[in-house]
Design brief:
alpha/beta, Alkaline Phosphatase, subunit A, three-stranded antiparallel sheet, 11 helices
């Protein structure tokens, strides 16, 4: 049998299905049907626990400045570089300035004080719970995005219905519904190498069911080669960050995702990672580790939005991180693992231009465990609202185990 994960370690393609090939083969969603335009949900995971209090600054809170004598972002000012005023209370970090125009146009919504009800401060556990959408339930083996695809199958689904732009499929896309993990697609040799790998695997396998699906698998690989990612030119003057070590990985992934979406290959669910947010030391205020990462994050998302142009009417981008950081800076001019955080939602169908927050306050008695921004919005309510408002699933309750979707808890994030 072929293992659950089959992928080119250096390269282009991974195919994920069930743990045994016959189950994988039976999934009709693998049939490649090119040129199918669909609505798309893009999820961006900021791994490491981003400091939401320095992404979207509550400059109206005096305690914020008391807690952060060296890393606080200055309140909005016309005389110096400072937070960008959003609503008189919250401000955008100046490194995120490329996204401000989307906010002003009503196409970027910000959800603050959102997070998990579980108290873990473990990166691994918190990421796992967020991707499974089942906080505290370690026995849940599949991800919320895979459950959406599995519970909402349709005959038009293609091999590219669910994709991760990375070499390893994330937990969010693990489960019975087929999904692809795509590494860096530049270089025709990588795509050809992926085809050779599958050809050799099929040649060695005598199972008739596997042989019967080889045509569809090779069709999907050939479609990637046909795209010719190296020759892709972003539209509308969009400029993604230049690939240069870790700093260019996110930009390259989003650029290739834009190409996949515009090729009408039927991408409905996409997942992209960007790491580097675990700022225990030397975090910085206007300059430093966090601002540098925020600049790459903002430049990439702005380029993606510009590149897709009018197609953003069919695309929603939701960002998340496993937890926030402590309200107080530590002795190393950084922050430690915290609780509630900030999420971004952008797209043509988003009811943006607002910070949606049941703000808990930052006074000592208002903090979670006397150290963190308290969580007032369960991240699953955000997931559910975006799914319902953007993709309109038939069985939304099946996507979130042991969680009752409460429309009363929705923020009004989507225009539809």
């Amino acid at each position: 049998m072929i293992n659950r994960r089959i992928f080119m370690k250096d390269g282009a393609l991974a195919v994920m299905g069930m743990s045994m090939v016959p189950g994988f083969v039976y999934r009709t969603a693998l049939t490649a049907q090119p040129r199918l335009r669909k609505k798309t949900l893009v999820t961006v995971f900021q791994r490491g626990g981003v400091d939401g209090l320095n992404m979207v600054i509550p400059f109206g809170e005096k305690h914020y400045y008391d807690y952060r004598p060296t890393i606080a972002v200055p309140a909005p000012s016309k005389e110096r570089r400072a937070a960008i005023d959003l609503d008189g209370f919250f401000g955008l970090h100046p490194a995120l300035q490329p996204l401000h125009a989307l906010y002003d146009r009503g196409e970027l919504a910000i959800i603050h004080a959102a997070g998990s009800p579980h108290e873990t401060r473990s990166h691994f556990d918190a990421q796992d719970y967020m991707e499974s959408a089942a906080p505290g339930a370690k026995n849940v083996g599949d991800g919320w995005l895979n459950r959406y695809m599995h519970e909402n199958q349709h005959p038009e689904a293609t091999s590219f219905r669910g994709v991760a732009l990375g070499e390893v499929l994330p937990k969010a896309l693990e489960g019975p519904a087929p999904a692809l993990a795509l590494g860096d697609l530049t270089g025709t040799k990588k795509v050809q190498g992926a085809r050779s790998l599958f050809e050799s695997l099929y040649d060695r396998e005598t199972n008739a069911l596997i042989s019967g699906t080889s045509k569809e698998m090779f069709n999907a690989i050939d479609q990637l080669a046909e795209l010719n990612p190296e020759a892709y030119e972003p539209a509308n003057g969009a400029q993604y960050p230049t690939p240069n070590g870790q700093n260019g990985v996110f930009g390259q992934a989003m650029k290739q995702l834009a190409q996949l979406i515009k090729a009408d290959l039927g991408v409905e669910i996409a997942f992209v990672d960007i790491g580097g947010w675990d700022t225990h030391s030397n975090q910085g205020s206007l300059e430093g580790r966090l601002p540098q990462r925020l600049q790459i994050f903002a430049n990439t998302l702005a380029a993606f939005y510009t590149d897709l142009g009018d197609r953003m009417g069919d695309v929603a981008v939701l960002t998340m991180s496993e937890f926030g950081r402590t309200a107080r800076e530590n002795g190393s001019a950084g922050t430690d693992h915290g609780k509630a955080n900030v999420m971004f939602l952008m797209g043509g169908g988003v009811k943006g231009g607002a910070v949606y927050a049941d703000w808990p306050g930052l006074a000592p008695e208002q903090l979670n465990e006397d150290r963190d921004l308290a969580m007032t919005t369960d991240f699953r309510n955000v997931f559910a609202e975006v799914l319902l408002g953007h993709l309109d699933p038939e069985k939304p309750d099946a996507v979130f185990p042991d969680f009752e979707i409460d429309n009363a808890g929705f923020k009004g994030l989507m225009r539809g």
